[in-house]
Design a protein that fits this description.
It is a single chain. With 593 residues, this protein is an alpha+beta fold. It contains 12 helices and 32 strands. The strands form 9 sheets. Strands 1-2-5-6-17-16-18-14-15 form a 9-stranded antiparallel sheet. Strands 4-12-11-13-9-10 form a 6-stranded antiparallel sheet, with no helix packed on it. A 5-stranded antiparallel sheet has the order 7-22-8-19-20. Helix 1 runs antiparallel to helix 2. The N and C termini lie far apart (151 Å).
């Protein structure tokens, strides 16, 4: 489904999402194609694949008229054919014309490659080194010749959202139209594709963006890098899903790339930057002209960096200033990737690079690089052409045909890398959910990896220690009485505690003899304590203790009383004896004094 949003006096946008159910696979005002069937999706009529069951409507004819209003003679023939085909099939659905319609003949047509927009007349790229670019850039940037930005990773949102724009430029004197696509998770949903699939650049192969995108399951796709229109050779740097497809050898053209940690990179790179393996590129493509640097238009500086031949300067200025179809890639402040495409035809309609840069800046883009444009500029939604190709078809030049190109920028559903999560997990919404014992983005690393030290081997179940060692990190010797891998075996020696911790042998070497006594004592004392702890003991009740205490106290009291009685009797006897002696002396006449 398409929803319209209008801003008074400025532009009209239509937004689409490939996840929504819809009966029109392309924009009804721009694509030139109409269908009510989703399977299989038809190619755009500009390619000549028209659904035979559905007539082309008058509204589509009007849209074509608005888009190509400057080509009245050509448009007249197109409109007549559209209305004739629509009317004929509507009133005679069962009748098949004996003479094929020109629309059906388009299936055999191909691009003439006539709308060429080349930045260089001879070899592609400047001849000077990265050092020259570094030394000649504005002082404010120091020695850094590129900009980096952390990519967003909003996993809860759709992979991307695309909008169709129709906007005024040059003070409102003309309108431009095209597509802007915002990607929420660039690292997991954006890929640089070779033409036709892996190996396409190596074979100098060219393919329609539709073909490459359909085979790769792209939600959105647009052409990317430059190529030799004669040989088909891919130009510049190309890294596709981590594979280095092509190395430019340090040619200083503006680059766009995504590193393994999700960092977005825009600008000029040295050969060392491109080949850096500490955080390698997983996607990389070369453009021409750095449009925006850190939020500011950077075209003048880019022209100095990318054109060093006086005889080619005029052609490079033409490349920058001419109206044409354009393709670019950038990012906003949130780290979302922005794919830009505008329709046009060289020298007649479209945008120059100054207008592209200002348009992107107005829409919040921070850094942006220009990609291949002109007749190469193509935008595809769900494998169907959604842009107006400027190249004429051959042999019938009344029609327009998309051009086979080289590399493609593809926005696809979130994917796991690798798709099977290394065989140790399952892919859920583009992320690997690892099985027990495994970790990492690709589930390719064991949990205990790098923790088992020099005496163990990491397995799914953890560290398996070498014979004689134990512990989570295999850094402790086996306790006495045990041996083997992870100290799992118990010694079987008679009359002695220790054995060899590695082999379990009951040898009598010096070390074991010295430790035997300590081992026996360690075994004996715990056994003795355990036996003492479990031995039955007699326990006296409180009443018993009270009886015993009273009895003992009574006995003690009886003993004390007996002692007192004996002492009293002894004292009494002594007094009695003394009295008797005194009396005896008195009777004898002896004075007692």
């Amino acid at each position: 489904m398409w929803s319209s949003r209008r801003k008074p006096g400025r532009r009209t946008e239509r937004t689409s999402s490939p996840h929504e159910e819809r009966t029109d696979t392309t924009d009804p005002g721009l694509s030139g194609c109409e269908t009510t069937e989703l399977t299989p999706p038809p190619s755009c009529c500009c390619h000549g694949n028209v659904p035979s069951k559905v007539p082309l409507g008058a509204g589509r004819a009007l849209a074509l008229g608005l888009a190509f209003r400057d080509h009245t003679n050509e448009l007249r023939d197109v409109l007549m054919e559209i209305f004739y085909t629509s009317s004929y099939h509507h009133h005679h659905p069962a009748v098949v014309p004996t003479t094929p319609s020109p629309l059906h003949a388009l299936r055999n047509k191909a691009s003439e490659d006539d709308d060429l927009l080349l930045p260089y007349a001879s070899s592609h790229g400047p001849s000077h080194s990265h050092r020259h670019v570094r030394d000649c850039q504005p002082v404010a940037h120091g020695n850094v010749t590129h900009e980096t930005w952390p990519a967003s990773n909003h996993t809860g949102l759709p992979a991307a959202e695309s909008s169709v724009f129709v906007s005024d430029v040059a003070g409102g004197s003309r309108k431009v139209y095209g597509h802007m696509t915002v990607v929420h998770d660039p690292l997991r949903t954006v890929s640089v594709l070779e033409p036709g699939g892996p190996g396409g650049c190596g074979m100098n192969y060219r393919a329609l963006v539709e073909e490459t995108a359909r085979a790769a399951g792209c939600l959105y796709a647009q052409n990317a890098g430059f190529f030799n229109t004669r040989s088909g050779e891919c130009l510049g740097n190309v890294v596709s899903d981590g594979r280095v497809v092509r190395d430019s050898g340090g040619v200083q053209n503006a680059q766009f790339g995504i590193r393994r940690d999700g960092t977005l990179v825009f600008g000029y790179l040295s050969q060392e930057d491109v080949l850096d393996q500490s955080n390698p590129f997983v996607q990389l493509i070369s453009g021409v002209v750095w449009l925006l640097r850190d939020g500011q238009v950077y075209i003048n500086q880019s022209m100095e960096a990318e054109c060093d031949k006086t005889n080619e300067m005029e052609g490079f200025h033409y490349f920058v200033n001419v109206l044409s179809a354009r393709t670019a890639v950038g990012h906003d402040a949130e780290g979302r990737l922005v794919l830009f495409h505008s329709d046009g035809q060289t020298k007649e309609r479209g945008m120059n690079l100054w207008e592209v840069a200002e348009f992107l800046k107005e829409h919040g883009v921070i850094n942006a690089v220009n990609l291949d444009g002109g007749g190469s500029s193509t935008f595809v939604i769900n494998g169907s052409l959604a842009s107006y190709p400027p190249d004429r078809c051959k042999p019938d030049d009344r029609w327009r045909c998309a051009r086979p190109v080289s590399t493609v920028l593809c926005v696809h559903p979130r994917r796991c890398q690798p798709a099977d999560c290394s065989g140790h997990g399952e892919c859920v919404d583009g992320r690997c959910r690892c099985q027990a014992g495994w970790r990492g983005d690709a589930c390719d690393a064991l949990l205990c990896q790098h923790t088992c030290g020099a005496h163990g081997v990491c397995t799914v179940n953890g560290c398996v220690c070498d014979a004689g060692w134990r512990g989570r990190s295999c850094d402790k010797l086996c306790p006495l009485g045990f041996y083997g891998r992870s100290c799992a075996e118990e010694c079987q020696c008679e009359d002695q505690c220790p054995c060899d911790p590695i082999t379990g042998s009951c040898t009598t070497n010096g070390l074991i003899l010295r430790t035997a006594g300590r081992c026996l004592s360690r075994r004996m004392f715990p056994t003795w304590r355990r036996d003492e702890a479990h031995r039955d003991r007699t326990h006296l009740t409180e009443r018993t203790w009270l009886i015993i205490t009273v009895t003992l106290a009574s006995l003690l009291l009886i003993k004390v009383v007996g002692q007192l009685i004996r002492s009293y009797r002894r004292s009494a006897n002594e007094r009695l004896l003394l009295s008797y002696q005194v009396s005896s002396k008195s009777q004898d006449g002896v004075c007692p004094c």
